[in-house]
Amino acid sequence: MFPMKVCVVGSGGREHALAHVLARTTEVVITPGNPGIPGSVETPPEQIDADLYVIGPEAPLVDGLADRLRAAGKLVFGPGADGAQLEGSKAWMKELLVEAGVPTAAHGTFTELEPALAFLDTMTAPYVVKTDGLAAGKGVVVTDSIDEARESIRDYLSGEAFGDAGRTLVIEEGMTGPELSILAICDGTRAVALAPAQDFKRIGDGDTGPNTGGMGACSPVPGVDDDLVATIISDFVEPTLAALRARGIDYRGVLYAGLMLTPTGPRMLEYNVRFGDPECQVVVPRLTSDLAQLLAEASAGHIEHEPTFTNDAMVTITLAAEGYPTSPRTGDAISGLDAAASLPNVTVFCAGVGANQAGELVTAGGRVLSVSARGATVAEARARAYEAAELVSWPGMQRRRDIAFAAAGVADQAGG
Ligand code: AMP
User: What's the CA gap between 343 and 399, in Å, rounded?
Assistant: First the structure.
């Protein structure tokens, strides 16, 4: 199975990376894309004729775009609205995990105050309270103070904190341990893992400041071996696919598993239903096998060729606009992009990028660019990525200086 033309849906750094790697072997069009991504068109996906559609972000998946394209007879990589609930509702996801026998934190789901507070009293610190619905990554409280947990429960259920997203909430057993993310490509029955990646969520060096969509990533991740990845696929992801199938859901797309490696073994924290951004920018370019073929086979319900990866490492640095993550300023002219992109082993993926009337590229979102570099080691990739990032600027540009610092084992945290 080989698609001649692929349509990528989305406009961020993740979609640029997918389009870039797909273009190694196939014709690619991206909608809506952005002025920094070659092949961008404004035509809606339903009006584009392609052999395969790859849907990047969660919003169109939750909205049923994959269902509409499939109903029109198209081959689509991405779950339908039914499968996308894994990301859209924590209560639904937890119920499914229990049904699947997948290890996860003990939990209760509540819509009423009294039973929720009574359940909280049966738990021990740390206390964990989550909104059921999407809350832009902010709906989770982890605290040692039972009073703070009680307060959150009141704020969530009243609708004050997160509107309807919090009127149903999940109270969870608190767990401890390092976190691990695994991206799996699923064909409805079988899942194959992509190379592991680590991302950096906080805006500031040393993991300080507010959460963001991701300020950088690296792949591979030291200490994550093939056996652990195989266990996550066989004991977590594939049972999840079976439980989905039992509910009549044929899940073809990415399952992005977020786990905690607790003292008593791995436990599932959450699923996302799409490639992580910026993890995608360091994982997918490391493929030595064909991405178009892999996604087409998964979409057709039968992965025949396992993905393979180079031994090279990749690191990506997010360049963000002033004011991100609260209120990013847009319209600043981006300078140095071409100089950065022309360095050997460097690719600059464009995310929040627009064009001014003169046709120059300007900032148009919070996370603007993903400057990615390849090297024989994480340290080499990291040094190249920082060398390239150093060439790019606009007023108020933000970036972290410690991305992949520990993974690279380097002595100088300044990062160029
Ligand atoms: P989630 O959106 O469910 O992944 O939660 C966001 C973050 O909150 C996770 O990445 C963890 O750092 C933390 N977290 C979530 N659930 C738990 C838990 N049960 N115990 C401890 N920390 C948690």
Answer: 19
Say if ligand 1 is within 6 A of residue 177 CB: no
pLDDT tens sequence across 366-396: 999 999 999 999 999 999 999 999 999 999 9
Q: How far apart, in whole angstroms, are the C-alpha atoms of residue 277 and residue 393?
A: 22
Q: 129 in ligand 1 pocket by Cβ < 6 Å?
A: no
Which atom of ligand 1 is nearest to 175's Cα?
Answer: 20
The predicted model scores a pTM of 0.93
Alpha helices (runs of H) in 278-325, residue ranges in sequence order: 279-283, 291-299
Enumerate the β-bridge partners of residue 131.
169
The rounded radius of gyration (Å) of the Cα atoms in the chain is: 21
Is the distance from CB of 389 to CB of 348 less than 8 angstroms? no
* Nearest residue to 351 via CA among 340, 335, 367: 367
344: its two tokens: 């050997």
pLDDT in tens, 134-181: 876 678 899 999 999 999 999 999 999 888 988 999 999 999 888 888
